[in-house]
Input
Amino acid sequence: MKELVVISGKGGTGKTSLVASFAALAENAVLVDCDVDAADLHLIMAPTLRKREDFWCGHEAAIRQKDCIRCGACLARCRFDAVKMTGTDSGGASFSIQPNACEGCGVCVWSCPVKAIDFPERLSGEWYVSDTRHGPMVHARLIPGGENSGKLVSKVKETARTLAPSHKADFLLVDGPPGVGCAVIASISGASRVLIVTEPTLSGEHDMARVLELTRHFHIPAAVCVNKWDLNGEMAERIEAEALRAGALLAGRVRYDRGVTAAQLQGRAVVEVNTGPLAEDIRAVWNKVSQFGE
Ligand code: SF4
Ligand code: SF4
Output
């Protein structure tokens, strides 16, 4: 089974739209949405939920008021200003922890003289296994402020890999997170190839270079696709030249076309509703990346 991860240096490059079309074009794929901070593949794939699990990660401190002797040690030690004091020292102050500010470092737990601080695991998100019209899909949602999207991404990918044999999948098609952070590293880890989607702008060029550096570091073959290339043909050429210099494969170009928005509004992949040049561009990219590395 081939594992294709589609990523971009920043959000909004059209990555998810391409993945949805690839899902329609692949004959047998397991879909994975690793963009857990801003998941949106489900908007096109309309998944039917089969399984939902909580994702617990990190810890958060909580003071048991009945055991607290109000010494203030936790307030003095917390470097994240997560401990709140109400009242005054003389008038019987009380202490509480603001969950959104707590970083789960555990220093207050360690410093409390009467062990009055609980330190349970923190609910950070949910992950799901669903059915879609183009095969099974594993996806997730990180609670705003939730910890460790990289760990959630790993969980989602690991689940998708275990599903693949029973579905006799040829492809694991992964919609990766934008950027070069730990969630991206988790999403490309173990991939057989990566497709970088970029736009013909200066920032697109810069972002692509950073992502290419990352894929080179992990020795993962990379291909580059310039989306909306005709908005700046000169820049598209420059980006492609740079991609070639960095050893990447050119996967093709996709033109700017309102058909992308029209398909999104219908909750469909472009190739499901469009038979024009836009869909042809996307098919050509799929043909190239699906055979890339063979
Ligand atoms: S666990 Fe760390 S961040 Fe959270 S309240 Fe305690 S000291 Fe502050
Ligand atoms: S360190 Fe413990 S006893 Fe002291 S104020 Fe904090 S929770 Fe209460």
